[in-house]
Amino acid sequence: MIEKIKCLIIGSGPAGYTAAIYASRADMKPVIYEGLQPGGQLTITTEVENFPGFPHGVQGPELMNLFKKQAERLGTDIRYGLATSVDFSQRPFKVVIDNNHEIEAQTVIIATGASAKWLGIPSEKRLNGVGVSACAVCDGFFYRGKDVAIVGAGDSAAEEASYLANICNKVYMLVRKDKMRASKAMIHRVSETKNIEILYNTETDEILGENAVDGVRVRNNITNELRTLAIDGFFVAIGHNPNTEIFKNYIDLDEQGYIKTIPGSTKTNIEGVFACGDVQDKNYRQAITAAGSGCMAALDAERFLALSH
Ligand code: NDP
Asked: How many Å is the Cα radius of gyration of the chain?
């Protein structure tokens, strides 16, 4: 049977839960589907120091648990499940959950976030889960006292390198340019950490090992010199791709696949469908900006519902 709802929220990071909090308080009876990674990317981070209201910092998973509890207390219907297809060609919008549950929603708030990028080399795929990982916080524990490498030079890579440095014997940071993109504070932190060695102008040629990682062959892109580092873990932290695959036939995306919203709003090209958080933001990508845009999406949806009746 087709379920009819007023407001469907897809995705459960800071954007989705903030939209849920506002939509619940506006009596829109929101239903939120948590998606593949309930709580979103903050559930795979450690300490969050820059979310206002937590003067001593807060652990990412704990913060998301608090978001969830707040949405729950205000009456949000929180469900485990993944939106697998949509039909936005007419209202009410059709969304299928887990390939079998059909929903008709008067408004849809897309808050599906973004997922980790991979290098795309065969050995990375072959050794995934047996030494190759895109989440230092999830998997760092397995490399206690060992040597590891992490590729990337943004804030994520720097944060994950610091995290690994606390657990591992040695961390090689593989930076493809002659400088890092991370913030000054993070560059300072990794440069000052004794067991992090930053290798600039360095690219991954091949991850080595039969059934588990035992090394990485890297190439200096100035001299073309190859060098093998003995490591047990290889971490990838090179940014993210927006989770927009199921929407692309209906929603306008930019050249990198991020949802285009009308500036100053969360409106997409389809009236009644709104987007918030990382799925439409490749610039700020912070928990607090995602939460802010989640609030905007709920307010935009509320106004839309009021005007469409
Ligand atoms: P970024 O896009 O900022 O950085 C990606 C990094 O990966 C770049 O240094 C890039 O190198 C490198 N890279 C990309 N592709 C490859 C490749 N194929 N081989 C080698 N290196 C590659 O992503 P982040 O996830 O680090 O950060 C995203 C956003 O989130 C940023 O705005 C960041 O500030 C923010 N952030 C904030 C945090 C906080 O405030 N606590 C924590 C983490 C992230 P190059 O520089 O050469 O292009």
From this structure: 21
